[in-house]
């Protein structure tokens, strides 16, 4: 939750910086970059809501015959939030790459910046992470997790209706 809040404020700061640099003749390109940045920011805000909901559900005390949520449920929310954060970061990086080309006057400078960033990212991923987190397996995890949350909500509401009768 804290990382998403910090990243959302970073996105706003970055957009303010670019807006103060960009001349009016690049307005359409800035609008596209701003749209992508707002998509990334809304994903981060959604991540804050999911993380808050997950921590609230797992920290509730079980009363009488209610079904409680265990630590595995909390870890499920943590994994889901991690994937959402990574997806929002990718969307923001696309926005940064697009906006970098309108900030500089010459084409060489953003190409050098992107090349150095790509080499640095490869070094970090090979030395620290050993693999890039976002793979097809991770996309399938996001889809299954979203479906699993819906199924769990339906089964919990059905079981609570059945108990009340």
How would you portray this structure in words?
With 165 residues, this protein is mostly helical. The chain has 5 helices and no strands. Helix 1 packs antiparallel against helix 2. The longest helix has 33 residues. It is elongated and about 65 Å long. The C terminus is likely disordered.
Short characterization:
By secondary structure, this protein is mostly helical. The protein is built from five helices and no strands.
Largest sheet entry: none
Q: Count the strands? A: 0
Q: Please state the structural category.
A: mainly alpha
Cα Rg: 21 Å
Question: What attributes does this structure have?
Answer:
165 residues; mainly alpha; 83% helix; disordered C terminus
Topology of helices and strands:
Layout: H1 2-21, H2 27-59, H3 71-103, H4 108-129, H5 136-164
Helix pairs in contact: 1-2, 1-3, 2-3, 3-5
């Amino acid at each position: 939750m804290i990382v998403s809040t910090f990243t959302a404020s970073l996105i706003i700061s970055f957009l303010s910086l670019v807006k103060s640099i960009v001349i009016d003749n690049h307005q359409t390109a800035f609008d596209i970059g701003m749209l992508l940045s707002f998509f990334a920011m809304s994903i981060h805000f959604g991540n804050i809501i999911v993380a808050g909901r997950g921590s609230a559900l797992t920290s509730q005390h079980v009363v009488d015959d209610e079904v409680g949520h265990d630590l595995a449920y909390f870890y499920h929310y943590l994994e889901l939030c991690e994937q959402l954060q990574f997806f929002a970061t990718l969307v923001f990086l696309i926005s940064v790459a697009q906006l970098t080309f309108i900030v500089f006057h010459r084409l060489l400078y953003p190409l050098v910046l992107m090349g150095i960033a790509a080499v640095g990212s490869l070094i970090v991923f090979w030395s620290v992470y050993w693999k890039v987190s976002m793979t097809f397996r991770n996309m399938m995890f996001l889809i299954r997790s979203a479906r699993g949350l819906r199924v769990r909500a339906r089964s919990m509401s059905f079981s609570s209706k059945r108990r009340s009768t």
